[in-house]
């Protein structure tokens, strides 16, 4: 197996990134109807994406497989005005890549840990600012326009500052690990072929 990324690898990562982005936008719209439910969309996202990420990682198994999709997602989200996600997706993507590259994409446990790190980065850039940088978040959410209807934003901030904020973070960790386990079960033959089981 070649250690350098090939054109087909970049194509696969590009397709995967587009699917992740579309899924994320869909989940944001569906869960955004209710602020309390919106806090948990990263957990839902992480569970659904885990098998896809496991497939991508086990099929390519080269440096950049975790980082490149994360950077693409960060750039796309950054272009939509989500500066925090642009930063966290790149930073946590680098950390995840280091973790999984330590033994050359040969460890399932490191692959799962790297995926968890990516999803924590996603949460850190999307949900955490609601209760960590509240004033900044409100300004971003309203575009700094005075007179904006603040009812939804205020409710979102209130539920994020409640026990639901921490609960949603815990749910993300659990969902990521469960999703990775499901991915391993679904893709057992791929992992066996790669000598990771």
Topology of this structure?
Blueprint lengths: L6 H25 L3 H4 L2 H20 L6 H13 L3 H19 L6 H19 L1 H5 L1 H9 L8 H11 L1 H24 L1 H6 L4
Explain this structure to me?
Helix content is 79%, strand content 0%. It has 197 residues and is an all-alpha fold. It has one domain (7-194). Helix 1 packs antiparallel against helix 3, helix 4 packs antiparallel against helix 5 and helix 5 (83-101) packs antiparallel against helix 6. It is globular.
The pLDDT mean sits at 85
Q: SSE order in H/E notation?
A: HHHHHHHHHHH
Assembly type of the chains comes to: single chain
Give the biggest sheet. none
Organism: Peptostreptococcus russellii
Keywords: Membrane, Transmembrane, Transmembrane helix
InterPro entries: CHP02185_IM
Protein name: Energy-coupling factor transport system substrate-specific component
Q: What would the keywords be for this entry?
A:
single chain, 197 residues, mainly alpha, 11 helices, 0% strand
Condensed summary:
By secondary structure, the protein is an all-alpha fold. It is built from 11 helices and no strands.
């Amino acid at each position: 197996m070649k250690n350098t990324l090939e054109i087909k690898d970049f194509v696969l990562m590009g397709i995967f990134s587009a699917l992740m982005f579309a899924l994320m936008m869909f989940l944001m719209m569906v869960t955004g109807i209710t602020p309390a439910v919106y806090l948990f969309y990263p957990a839902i996202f992480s569970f659904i994406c885990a098998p896809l990420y496991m497939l991508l990682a086990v099929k390519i198994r080269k440096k950049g497989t975790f980082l490149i999709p994360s950077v693409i997602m960060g750039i796309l989200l950054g272009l939509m005005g989500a500066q925090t996600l642009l930063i966290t997706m790149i930073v946590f993507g680098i950390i995840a890549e280091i973790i999984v590259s330590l033994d050359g994409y040969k460890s399932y446990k490191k692959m799962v840990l790297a995926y968890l790190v990516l999803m924590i980065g996603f949460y850190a850039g999307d949900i955490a600012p609601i209760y960590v940088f509240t004033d900044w978040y409100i300004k971003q959410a309203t575009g700094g326009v005075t007179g904006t209807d603040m009812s939804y934003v205020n409710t979102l901030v209130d539920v994020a500052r409640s026990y639901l904020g921490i609960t949603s973070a815990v749910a993300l960790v659990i969902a990521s690990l469960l999703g990775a386990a499901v991915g391993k079960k679904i893709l057992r033959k791929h992992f066996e072929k790669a000598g990771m089981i």
